[in-house]
Amino acid sequence: xxxLVAAMAGLVLAWTATGAAVAPAKPSLDGHQIGASxxxxxxxxxxxxxxxxxxxxxxxxPSPDGSTDEWPVHRVTxxxxxxxxxxxxxxxxxxxxxxATGYRAGDCQHWDGNHFQPRPGLRxxxxxxxxxxxxxxxxNWDDVHAYVAWLAAKTGKPYRLLSExxxxxxxxxxxxxxxxxxxxxxxxxRQTNAxxxxxxxxxxxxKDVAPCRDxxxxxxxxxxxxxxxFGLYDMLGNALTWTAECYxxxxxxxxxxxxxxxxxxxxxxxxxxxxxxxxxSSPPQVLxxxxxxxxxxxxxxxxxxLRVARGE
Length: 312
Known about the structure:
14% of the residues lie in helices and 21% in strands. The protein is of the alpha+beta class.
């Protein structure tokens, strides 16, 4: 059958020999349509396909600690669909990796009210109150890279860490405020798992908390709270997410296509990495789609976790 192609008002339509118009194919990722959820293996993370789009990255206001590393605000455009973990990686999913590979992750650091201090015997698989449905914590940058590499080899798919821009695009889900929800401080406990009265009761070192109870002293199972408009859960709260990027103290010269800045890290910090989101112990003022956390890649904080991405 002969196919003729005509351009009308900038839209390309395919015409069959009978004269019927065929609409252009909708954008998809590896055959998965925008908004679809899929899983590449039984113990793989559930992925959600996000649409291409643009957003303004950063914030015109100083962060709570007075830093200006979220400046300048700049437009970022993701030209192609992106698959993002619909949930944070769970303890059970990481356990499948450990069983398959024999990987060993070391002790975790715990907040004592002033500093993160290593606590012997506290690890990803001994964290209090967890089962396999809970968000994975107590992993460092090498641990999450090892998991992502295993996932890619197991499935033959290009799994990786998110860039900062991809993470912020996914977290904002079309919104432009600090968070993807609005309301008074008490609204936090209806929307996410972060520092609150329940957490303070279990961890007295948490001094700055929301005046409400979300029902979880530390981590919660993934997907307990409402998703954002992209259908992604726990984008703020439960566990922070390691990203692919080393830290730079502003967005001067940052890519505008959603890619990572992995070289030229801020001196003298060097090759420190950026985490995004917030965790079960994060105070209310840091729950921000634009917020950035910089940590040494060897750090295994008790709220440091993982969300994966997959391209084509």
